[in-house]
Design a protein that fits this description.
With 578 residues, this protein is of the alpha+beta class. It has three domains: 195 residues, tricorn interacting facor f3 domain (Immunoglobulin-like), CATH 2.60.40; 176 residues, tricorn interacting facor f3 domain (Immunoglobulin-like), CATH 2.60.40.1730; 134 residues, no CATH class. A hairpin with a 2-residue loop joins strand 4 and strand 5. The radius of gyration is 29 Å and the shape is globular.
Length: 578
Amino acid sequence: MKKATLFLLIFFLSIGSIFLLSPHTTYATSPSQIQVDRIDHVITPIYGGILLINDTIKISPTTENATIENFSIGFPLKYKTNLRFSMAYNAEDFNEQLDVILDAGLGVVGYYGVTVVFPNEVRDLLYNGQPYTFTVIFIFSDLIDSSTEYTFTVDFPLYPSLAQNASTCNVTVILPKNANYTDNDFPFNTTQKSERYYLNYTESPLQNFARMSTKVNFTSKTKDDFACFSVSKLSREITIDTNGHISLSELFLLKSQTAFTVSNIRLQLLKDGSDVSAFDEQGKKLNAELLENETNTYEISLNLVENQSRSFRVVYDLFGENHLVQQDPQSYMLTLSLSENLQMIPQTFTVKIIFPEGAVVKSFPQRTFSIQRGVFQETLFLSLFNITWLQNEQWSFTYSYAIFWASFRPTLWTSALVIIGSIIAFAWQRPKAPVSVSVVLVPRKTLNEFVETYEDKKKILSELEQIKQKARKGKISRRRYKVRKITLENRLSSLSKKLADLQRGIMSGGAKYADMMRRLEVAETELDNIEADIRRIEVRFKRGEISAQTYRRLLEGDLQRREKARITIDGLILRLRE
């Protein structure tokens, strides 16, 4: 009897601890205190293959003096792996952003939920019985499928998932420009305005925990009107010269996910970008035509076939007066919004800002950027992952610059020429002797350190994959997996930073080493892209979106490309080791 009582006590304590530790009970306000008066659910496919879902929600308290600290909203769990970004803000003021807790759940199994945390002023508003309207944004990838030529299928949650009923839910699907809607079984009301189709449907009331999904088909009028592609890497280099002129060079590495050949890529540049030129992998100039002046969108002539990866570079200038302010004779402030033009989500986004020779950087966002100080020049570096245009933070940099540096390089060259001329004149009068040529090489210690660090990085990546597989198969606990994962990722971040420093030092050792580092970087990016493709193919096969034959064909192609990239990397590392 005592054993049975003890067992029941331990059982109920365990159940209680689970609820106490659950994120749903930690963050969720009781649904009974909140009335959802209206929700506008807007779905927008964006060129490049991104799906934007915008939920504008009007809530009000159900009782007097209600304590409402947050609100939860989500979608069926099957879309979790497609989510790339989420944010919330006051519907009347985008700059009044709200904190969002990701993966907070909805209190029941089968949903992915986020919790929007209200600041004190909103809590007071609701406490006093006033309604409040806010917007939650979700950005998804890989939900737009191109199965046949010119035809695209969008898969999305038809309604938002809430813990309480909503009085009215207005669903709107906004199709891309120059796209034709293909009717399906769902009874959308269709209207056309400004070269776009709008699909509308109203559900009143909307039941809680809705999990209905649907698909919408549309066709583009031409093969270049709409396309899907993934961007593995976007590297942006910004250079400020001695006259305050600002130039940009952007290197894109992307892969087509469109079922037909695309001959042009549409690219949105920074708003005041001008004098645009584009080049392919071999440096051949590509045609760059301005399509929309308002958004500064260009069309780049780059042929892409299905599953093909290509890189290209875009070079253009910025109006210095819009970004550079001279505060005093030797002090300048540079202001940049580096993600305003991203209609895509690059997996890796790097920025390099090169200041004029002789300039000294005084202030910069130290949590975001790192600095490299050379003998005469200073450079800032930034590396981010899966950044979106909604994370358009404006960054400011200040630096000092003395005007005499503008003539430093010409004076240096003139002096060097005079000295060289004197040496030649002196040597001309002396008997000629064999001249020995000294070759500056990268120190063997630096090369060995790079190779060893790179091997350590490969081991950590391998171990990360191993513990991931063990956690998936249940061989290790979820808690142990998370702890080990965080430890390995911290070591990986430290090694990546060390490798970047060593790589810059090796590249300074001459054209041979610079070429090897560039080839290594391209091969690594290609390998990352292939691994992502393999995961995406496996997910599509498990969902039943592709047949077993198509799965094997695509997988075989990716495995061959992966082996080729690995051979390239191993060959380069071997050359550095020798």
